[in-house]
Write a structure and sequence with these properties.
The protein is globular, with a radius of gyration of 16 Å. It has a domain of 123 residues: LURP1-related (Porin, Beta Barrel), CATH 2.40.160. With 198 residues, the protein is mainly beta. Strands 1-2-3-4-5-6-7-8-9-10-11-12 form a twelve-stranded antiparallel barrel.
């Protein structure tokens, strides 16, 4: 895909590859660590896990971990009085460091109508020409959606698998951040009431 080698990683360059990367997402039952899902590479090695409710003891809290169990992202649904007045939920992704600190990385707001609106993602910095950095288009429920940057380039695509709804693929384009992509997929999973939802 043109221009993808110029894209800066969202979380870290260690999660970017110089070639297209096919990830396989497999849901876990809710009885296993509060649900969530695991992500395997093409060699069937565990590269990421996403823990849903039950792990942190609260709804709307997700944790993305690497294959060794180290925490990468803490993803929370924003609460408070201001949020209670909104009909749409805002999700914030925070990079977690080895000391337990958190740094804001991105935000995503639920669509007004889950079946027809693109979902916009805003990174920590401001100033992109469209006022947003990434957009999810298509149907996550049908396993037919893309994550595109503000220039319209596809950075990742969620695809159906022959394993049914509990198993699907995410193709990440070269130079793009796989951890960020999986974090977005984790939020979509929760929005649409799948394995990370309590």
């Amino acid at each position: 895909m043109g221009g993808s080698s110029n894209v800066m990683p969202v979380i870290s360059k260690i999660y970017c590859s110089s070639s297209p990367t096919m990830l396989t997402v497999r849901k876990r039952p809710h009885v296993v660590n509060g649900g969530g899902f695991v992500v395997l590479n093409s060699s069937q090695n565990l590269v990421f896990t996403v823990e849903g409710c039950g792990t942190l003891g609260a709804k709307g809290e997700l944790v993305l971990k690497d294959g060794d169990g180290g925490s990468i992202l803490s993803i929370t649904k924003k609460g408070g009085i201001a949020q209670a007045l909104r009909t749409r939920n805002r999700w914030n992704g925070y990079l977690m460091d080895y000391e337990g600190g958190k740094k804001f990385i991105f935000s995503l707001t639920d669509p007004k109508c889950p079946m027809s609106n693109a979902i916009r993602i805003h990174l920590e910095h401001k100033g992109q020409s469209k006022g947003w950095d990434f957009e999810v288009n298509g149907s996550f429920i049908d396993r037919a959606c893309t994550i595109e940057n503000y220039k319209g380039n596809i950075i990742a695509q969620v695809e159906e698998s022959t394993g049914g709804k509990d198993l699907y693929h995410v193709m990440v384009q070269p130079g793009h951040d796989q951890a960020f992509t999986v974090g977005v997929v984790a939020i979509l999973d929760n929005i649409y009431g799948e394995s990370t939802r309590c």
